[in-house]
Write a structure and sequence with these properties.
Number of strands: 0
Distance between the termini: 11 Å
Structural class: mainly alpha
Low-confidence stretches: none
Number of helices: 9
Strand content: under 5%
Order of helices and strands: HHHHHHHHH
Shape: globular
Length: 166
């Protein structure tokens, strides 16, 4: 399985673009700012170039991890997971695999399928982590939910891009 570098780069931009929209004061920005307790002056502090640069790098790492989460054809057996009969009759002979199993290599490669797995990752990975951290940091549930919703939307879109863009 070859990675689609264009899909990874595009998916890496999703958190940045969505963040500009989602955390805008007319969307969830004011709610988020009140939940964090940060003032406008606090938000102007810091090296924004470093913040955005590191955020973009982290987004790329997240996109790379989204690939095996959404694309199931990462190895021989996962490409045939719904075709047990074909596996039993053809065996696992390595010869001519490219042509023999070509019909199965793009199953479940849709934007919808990637979005589903992205959303499920948001519910079953992101929410537990953010809720646990938020509770120990004594953050409000509003803070936890605002940030969880943002990341769930992000990885849902990222999953759709990575899985659907073949």
């Amino acid at each position: 399985m070859n990675f689609n570098i264009y899909a990874l780069i595009t998916a890496s931009l999703v958190p940045m673009v969505l963040g500009f929209i989602y955390y805008h004061p007319k969307m969830m920005g004011t709610v988020w700012q009140k939940a964090t307790g940060l003032s406008d002056e606090d938000l102007k502090k810091g090296n924004m170039l470093a913040i955005f640069g590191i955020s973009l790098l982290m987004s790329f790492l997240l996109a790379v991890q989204m690939y095996p989460l959404t694309v199931h054809q990462m190895h021989f057996y996962s490409a045939l997971m719904n075709h047990e009969n074909e596996m039993k009759t053809t065996g696992t002979a390595v010869y001519n695999l490219t042509e023999q199993f070509k019909p199965y290599l793009n199953e479940f490669r849709t934007f919808k399928h990637g979005a589903l797995h992205g959303f499920l990752a948001g519910v079953f990975f992101v929410l537990p982590i953010m809720a646990t951290n938020g509770m120990f940091e004594r953050k409000s549930w509003r803070y936890i939910l605002v940030n969880w919703l943002y990341w769930t939307i992000c990885i849902t879109i990222m999953g759709a891009i990575i899985c659907g863009w073949q």
